[in-house]
Amino acid sequence: MGIRKLGYVGLNVTDVDAWTHLLGRTLGIGVTTAKFGTDEVALAELDVFKYRLALYPATQDSPREIGWIVDTPSELDRLTRKLTDAGFTVEDGTAEERELRGAIHLRWFTDPVGYRVELVVGETKARTGVARPDGTPGATGLGHFVLASPKLAELRELYESILEFKLTDYRNPGLFFFRCNSTHHSIALGTAETAGLHHLEFEYASIDDVGRAYDRAKENGTPISISLGRHMNDKAISFYVENPSGFHIEIACGGIEIGDDWVPHDFGVPNVWGHQHTSVNPFAQK
């Protein structure tokens, strides 16, 4: 009970058109729009629910909100009490925010690095089938994100002790993977001099869908920041592209699921094969 899964991520972006071009033409993801205040927000529909990624027009690229789906209103109340007892200020979302998210209840707080974290109850289906541009195979869901910051200890305390995520595995000196369901991880926390998202992961149904997206990325001149490869810890096969906001999108399939008998461990080397970086890997072991 408690947090059930990663629900959505909202981003402030300076070039919405470049984002929608990447999502639609290369990654095979349908994008709709919705009014929010005076803005028109682009909504990326990775599955049958309303959206998993929201793009807000802005003058600076930055994370806007991270949304987690909570099982029940009573569990939302319980987590609210834990957050309040730990010194976090928890506030209710507005009616307009709930409508955009497709949520029944929404509460939010600010995490140790200054990002807005939302806890919501309820999801709204947008349609019975997933919208795909021109029938192109695309993502089937939002898997995880990696957050790097200088406040690793504080973030671990938040996600492990308060929000009750379980440690799956790690790589010393400072990269930790956490789960809130049977998926290997929904969030990973790493160290960096300044806070930022390292990547978002989009899940695809098969290696063929990942491969076709890889071909489209090369054909469209999309910057491939990390080559095709297989991770050692979750066994996912994936590649990464640089998005218009300057961080990575991981296109992946085949990640393993974890049972209650799993024992956290240092998984040693990062990859079984592949995943060559075009720039310095911030999580490379020293």
Automatic annotation (TrEMBL):
InterPro entries according to UniProt: Fosfomycin_Res_Enzymes, Glyas_Bleomycin-R_OHBP_Dase, Glyas_Fos-R_dOase_dom, VOC_core, Xdiol_ring_cleave_dOase_1/2
Stored SUPFAM superfamilies: Glyoxalase/Bleomycin resistance protein/Dihydroxybiphenyl dioxygenase (SSF54593)
Keywords: Aromatic hydrocarbons catabolism, Dioxygenase, Iron, Metal-binding, Oxidoreductase
Limits of the VOC domain: 5-122, 141-254
Cofactor(s) it depends on: Fe(2+)
PANTHER family named among the record's database cross-references: GLYOXALASE_BLEOMYCIN RESISTANCE PROTEIN_DIOXYGENASE, LYASE, PUTATIVE-RELATED-RELATED
Membership in a protein family: Belongs to the extradiol ring-cleavage dioxygenase family.
Protein's name according to its UniProt entry: VOC domain-containing protein
Organism for this UniProt entry: Streptomyces levis
Lineage: Bacteria, Bacillati, Actinomycetota, Actinomycetes, Kitasatosporales
